[in-house]
Specification:
Shape: rod-shaped
Structural class: alpha/beta
Number of domains: 2
Mean pLDDT: 78
Helix content: 25-40%
Low-confidence stretches: 122-135
Strand order of the largest sheet: 2-1-3
Number of strands: 7
CATH class of the largest domain: Alpha Beta
Number of helices: 5
CATH architecture of the largest domain: Roll
CATH topology of the largest domain: Outer membrane lipoprotein wza fold like
Distance between the termini: 119 Å
Largest sheet: 3 strands, mixed
Length: about 200
């Protein structure tokens, strides 16, 4: 028969085992509920439709260039220089002092590079300015002051006013809007209307 000390040892061991079991149950019971994470994908954003790429334009280049009387295609919003480069550049006798290489060209324009010392240009044809059948066309929304001064009744002061108005208010949307520029009256507007374009 076990003695008193053995019984005490067994009792203590039993109590310790019970305490361990109770502790384990308490630990398991006290564990927090697992967190369920839900990932919501962002709402799809509308993709803007690609803007249409402007088509190349067709221009006619004449005069003192490597390949005169040539029709070439150049990108939209090209300059006179781009058209001249497309025909191989200018020849040695080109009079570039009369050419505005920075002028923006438009579909159907003619670019003419004059020859040095040649003063036999046809009346109404402005060297290296875009021209259309029927005479010179000045593009008032892109023209520089020197080009604007080629319009009848437009001097340096009014040309600069046109540019200042354009920069302050945006491109002209109608020929009549030019009448809002100080110094351009009805008579001047009638004179310049046949020679301007709003492109």
């Amino acid at each position: 028969m076990p003695d008193q000390s053995t019984r005490t040892t067994l009792l203590v061991t039993f109590i310790i085992a019970i305490l361990i079991v109770i502790g384990l149950v308490a630990v398991v019971a006290s564990r927090p509920e697992p967190v369920v994470m839900t990932i919501n994908p962002p709402m799809p954003t509308a993709t803007e439709a690609p803007s249409a790429t402007p088509s190349p334009i067709l221009v006619y280049v004449t005069g003192a260039v490597a390949e005169p009387e040539t029709t070439v295609r150049v990108p939209h919003n090209s300059r006179v220089q781009d058209a001249i480069d497309a025909v191989g550049g200018v020849s040695e006798d080109a009079d570039l002092s009369r050419v505005n290489l920075a002028a923006i060209i438009h579909d159907g324009d003619q670019i003419h590079v004059p020859i040095l010392g040649d003063d036999s240009e046809e009346a109404g044809v402005i060297p290296a300015l875009p021209t259309r059948s029927g005479g010179t066309v000045i593009y008032v929304n892109t023209a520089v002051a020197e080009e604007l001064q080629r319009l009848p009744g437009i001097g340096a002061v009014i040309a600069n006013r046109i540019i200042a108005y354009r920069e302050a208010n945006g491109p002209f949307s109608s020929v009549e809007q030019l009448g809002e520029v100080e110094g351009i009256g009805e008579a001047t507007l009638e004179q310049i209307a046949p020679f301007i374009s709003l492109e």
